[in-house]
Amino acid sequence: MDVHVVVITGAGSGLGASLAKKYSDLGCHVCLLGRTQTKLIRTAETLSHNHSIYEVDISSKSDVAKVMQLIKEEVGQIDLLINNAGVGIFDLTENLSEESIHQMIDINLKGTIFCTQEVLNDMKKRNQGYIVNIVSLSGKRGKAIESVYSASKFGARGFTESLAIELEHTAIRVFGAYMENMKTVLWGELVQKTRLWNRMMLQMSLWKVSNRENTHQLKKLLLKIIKKNIKDSETYTIFKLRDALLKSLF
Fold first, then answer.
1. CA-CA distance, 222 to 76, in Å (whole number)?
2. What percent of the chain has a predicted confidence (pLDDT) above 70?
3. 94: which DSSP letter?
4. pTM score, two decimals?
5. Residue 51 CB neighbours (<10 A)
6. Spatial contact of 88 and 151, defined as CB atoms under 8 Å apart
7. Which of 23, 43, 59, 127 could form a disulfide with 106 if both were Cys (CB 3.0 to 4.6 A apart)?
8. Which residues contact 95 (CB under 8 A, 6 or more apart)?
9. CA distance 7 to 19
10. What is the pLDDT of residues 186-206, one digit of tens each?
11. Is pLDDT above 70 for 86?
12. Is 27 left (phi over 0), alpha (psi -120 to 50) or beta?
């Protein structure tokens, strides 16, 4: 894999930051793309080789075009593009705001397309290059409270597979990565609080078996624990969705 210049979107944290460190350790010049410069600087401080920082809104085609042109002028031809940037707002479909819907489609899907468009012509001229799209398993199967997030990821999957077919007679390689939830800013708190819920459900089941007469007190205790530990409305949706299970216990 002959790679010298790597471009990573969403490089300010999570998987993007980890990939940046990996390719830097391999001796690549890593171009860090993201919306927040302070986060990109924090990632840059962990890198061992040359790097560049570019603040960009990948949902804007014109912004993406300017940054990609700047990279070619300042660093050189792009050998590897990793479309990693993503955003997720998780709630029941009817509760999602218009702004959050646009945000997920614009970044997760359109941003991936815009960035890819800007590297394709040069890669085709050289007949070499790699494009990696971080899709996630939400692009393979739908989940409750992930309707629009999954829609954006299904779109990214369709784009990835179609692009691979378009380029199958070239030396350009296209890959889609489908990971389960990871310990990142996007998923970490959600996973942690889901585990909290599961532990509480187990404790409730055991309590009900041995203390049937005390289920009312247990229910009050459970609600107190939830109110203390669950602060944000998005995560609280998980608990609303499991009301039926709660009722079955009591």
1. 58
2. 71
3. G
4. 0.74
5. 22
6. no
7. 59
8. 237
9. 10
10. 544 555 555 554 555 545 444
11. yes
12. left
